Structures are given as structure tokens and as C-alpha cells.
Fold these 3 entries.
Entry 1:
Amino acid sequence: MSDSSPLTHFNEQGRARMVDISDKPETKRTATARSTLLMKSETLALIKQGKMKKGDVLAVAQVAGIMAAKKTSDWIPMCHPIALSGIDIQFADNGSNELYIEATVRTTGPTGVEMEALTAVSAAALTVYDMCKAAEKDMIISSTLLVMKTGGKNGDFHRQDS
């Protein structure tokens, strides 16, 4: 594999490697990811009213997402440990049966934070499921995606369909 290959996580032998970012310039970088949970309207109402037996679902999910973003390199083998400068997790819903989780992660450094944002919404979604599974086991975690990213040599990305 040459250095110009888009598959940068492979060495000359085709084996996995962590990319060397030591010569990359530090830039401000941001990434936003979103995940959607589909559930019964009754379950969403219990979450919004704070009536789940395990406690405040969104508060716990928010903390779980923040903690997960900070530990992304422990989960994803080729991710670099990154000093994050900010993590914001927000929740919204469609008023019926969908809960939306959105995480924005920021850093100034030589590599991006897309994986940290995706990890944050994934952990938050799993936490919502865990806290609500007694009320509903057939919730669906769906549509986990990168909404946008800024910074770095590849420039900005903004999903067109979100």
C-alpha cells in the first residue's frame, strides 16, 4: 500500500497499523453525529416525563455519551487518544415514537473527532435502551451517522440529507 492510498490504516504488508500523525498540523476540528431510537409512544412519554424506574434516562445517557467519547481510542483499535476540548450531547424527538441523540465533539489537534462523535451517540443510545428495556424490549437503535465534520486536510463535510 502506498501513502497515497485511501486505505491509510494498512502498512506495506497489508496489515493493520495506526496512522502516524506526528507531522500533521494542529487545526480546530469538530464533528457532529446523530443516532435515532424508534420506540412506542408510551415509552417516549415515560422518558420525557422522567418516570422510568431506573431514573432520568436522558441525564444518564448524556453522561454515558460523554464518557464514551473520551474513551473512543479504548474501543476502536486504530483511533488515536485525543485531548477533547468539548463534548455536547443533545436530545430531541418527533413527539411520537422517535428519540434523536446528537453529539458534537471538538478538539484542536492533528486528527479528527468523527469517531468520538459516533461513539458518543452510540453509547448514549445503548444507555437509553438499557434504562428502558424493562418497559420495551423491541426498541430499535437506527440511523447512526456522521452529520458533519470540520477541519483537517480533507476539509469540511456536511451531510446533505440530514
Entry 2:
Amino acid sequence: MAVVVTLGGGIASAAAPAPAGPLACQGPVIRCVQDARRTLEGIRDRLGCDHRAPFPAIYVHLERSLETAVAHGEPFDEPSWLAGSLNTGFVNLYLDAYEADRAGRPVPAAWHAAFAAARTADVNAGQDVLLGANVHIQRDMPYVLAALGLTRPQGGTRKPDYDRFQAVLDRAYGPAVRDVADRYDLIVALADDRWNPIAGLTAGQLFRSWRARAWEHARQLVDAPDEAARDRVVRRIETNAADWARLLSAVRVPGYRTVRDDYCRTHTTRELAPTRPR
């Protein structure tokens, strides 16, 4: 079963996945990953000190980690699916949401919560990262997985490759945390696993649980016998991601936006305007 993902939060039967983002994986897989990384770097750099920037910043590190894994021949069963089709489709859903929000078009509730917190809330950059990661993993991932299929063309589950990707995530964690702390918000340094291994372990466990739930929701989409059953799964996916978004954005520190902005303007090493483009 394949699905088309819509930014309104629903799905419709179709012959192939169709995130509308600008990336198309053609040619060598490593080139697909490099294209994704460069696209995310462009968004990160254009955003400057905008509070939406920490999420694409950590996403860049994930793509770098995946690029290294592909270049070094990480033992994936189906690298063209994991690093090619899945990665490209997954990045495109973030790009779709980002561009829709910029244009003032509706986005799913959990994405709306993440973007709204970045625009107006007194949250820290770690919360911005987790808000983005929550909706991207728990909301977007099930749809992409279901659209591409959970089994290989010749038979056999794709779950082992999906699980192996966790190692790519784990390797990206430390560099991503340090980069966000250096660029945007010093408080994120509290999660640096070089001296706070508990933070790295806790983050790893959280992402594992989110990714496990995403796979299960994708399986439910694929196994749904009819449209009504699929709609029930969609509601579970959307509600779960939105509930997590409310939880992650609940803690606010009055005036912390100004603290973050001052820090970013002072500490960023990039030649970027610290404005907040739409």
C-alpha cells in the first residue's frame, strides 16, 4: 500500500509517495544525501538567529553522519532505500512543512506548535530541536515508511535497516548538540555527552522510542483493511505528535528569547543577518 502525504494531516490512496519537496534522489545514493545536506544547510544559514534554525542545524549533522556511513560502506541491506528513497522523502516532508508555514498555509498541528514556539515562545533551543524532532519522527516518518513499503521487493522486512539507522543518529548526537550550543543557546551544552553521558543516553532512548512508535504506526497504516481503519490510524498519529508537542513546549522562562537572541548575535561565527525571515 502506498500513500500520498498531505500537509493537512491526512492521507489518500495513490500509486506512489509524493512529498512535494524539491529533492529527488537520482544517481548515486551518496549524492542524494549530499543534496539533502546542502539544502538543509541553506535553510539553516538563511534563518540566521531565527529560533527555527536549530532544527535544520541538527538535521545537517544527521545528514553528515549518514553521508559518512554511506561513504564507508555501512552494512545496510538496502542502502538505496534507507539513504536514498527514505531519507529523501523524509527530508522533503520537513521542507514541505517549512515552506507551507512560511507561505502562511496550514500545516499539521504538531508542526504548527513547533513553528509557533520558535516564533513567539520563551523556550530554549533544545526545546526547539525536540519539537521539530518529535513531529518529524512521530508524525512524518510513519507516512513515508508506509508510502515506500515496509518490505523489500524481493521479500523480507526493511526493519533491520531502519534499526541500523539508529547508529547514524547516535553518532550525530554529540556534534549536533555542540553546534547548537555554540551557535544558538549555551544552555544546550548541558546535554553534551562528553561530560554528561546521561543526557546522551536519555536522548538516545527517547529517539528510539519515537522511532519504534513510527514504525508501528506505519505498519498499522499498511495493514489497515479500509479507509475508515486508515483514518483511525491517522488520528492516532496526529494526536500523539500534537500531545508530545504540547508537553515539550510547556516549560517557558519569561524573557529567555532575548537571552538567546543576544547570545546568538554575539557568538555566531557565520556572516549571517540575525533577523527572522518568514
Entry 3:
Amino acid sequence: MPVTVLLVDDEPLVRAGLRAVLEAQPDIEVVGEAADGAAVIPLVRQLRPDVVAMDVRMPLLDGIEATRAVLRTVDQPPKILVVTTFENDEYVYEALRAGADGFLLKRARPAEIVHAVRLVAEGESLLFPASVRRLAAEYGDGDGGNRAARDVLARARLTEREAEVLRLMARGLSNAEIAARLVVGTETVKSHVSAVLAKLGARDRTQAVITAYESGFVAPG
């Protein structure tokens, strides 16, 4: 089955460019478009896309609020890939904190766009880990972490192995790379990752990594 994508951007040329790049791939299908975040929820419910590629800045409802709305109101929500002009934008970090799974630069090359959609759909790696780390360092709550994130981590009571897996996730390692590092099977790593997400109440590894940074469990610098 192809990865299905909904494009949300107030610039028609951006949507057209993304559509052209993605539809050139045999395993990706663009199922719809919207010009503002306000139209996302009904389209997501109607089209059930695997991934929403969503502009972070839009006139009526921006990508941050649209992300929150989708995750709050849609059962089995899609993966959300924020599309932005600047990777060091505070809006991008707020979108990730709100639940977005990754971000994509508008100036990205076609191969990078395709890779981002596939990687976010698979959910087994962190998209652009170095950039996420820089964003956490710049817009997070300092080296000591914020209290809410610290409380989440304390309540999680991760085992020693789960804590090790979370540190490796924060470094951007995929499940296969973590398995090689720990000399265990990939299925074992998947079980550990699932346990980490469940204990942290994170919907995916991006949210778990942000909690790790903001709690001070992992230094973002």
C-alpha cells in the first residue's frame, strides 16, 4: 500500500511542487490538498492520510494549532510533517512540542522530501536529529529541564535498558542501529521503544526525545 499524504499550505506553488515530487514516487500518493489549517480536520477524517505535510505559518489556523486540533479530535491521527522556511524557527519547535513528528524545509531537495515522508510514515527513526537537538537547546527550558517534563520522566520509572534506549533514540539512531549498538535483536529494540513511549505517554519517538531533552535527562547541546 502506498503512503498517502495530505498537503496543507497557503501557497499554491508550494503545494504543486510537493505534489509533483511526491507523486513521482510509486509508493507515495497525494490524496488531497488544503490552503489552511482550518480545513485539516474534516479532510483528515474524510481521506485518512498516513502523513499530513503542513505549513507552520498560515493565515487562519497555523500548523501548531492545527496539529493540536488533529491530535486532540481525530482517532488514530496521521503523522504530521511540518513544512517550514527556516529550521531554527521557534514555531517549528512549538509544533514539535504540540505533537508534530518532524519537519521539512521548503528548500529541501526532492530526494530529501521523499525521504522525510517515508521516514515519518515508518516512525522508526528521528527525522533530522541534529536539528531537533539544536531547537531544544535554543527553545527548551534550560539545562535543568522544566518541571512538567521532569515529572513525566520521574513517573515513567524507566528501566536501565529503557533509559539507554531513550538516550540512543535522542541521538537519532534507528531501531536497527540501536539493536546493533546493544547487540540485541530488532524486535527486542521495538519492544523497548514501545515501552518507553507508553511510560512517557508519548505518541512517537519525536515526543519522547523532546521529553528527554526538556527534562534534562539528555543534554540537547
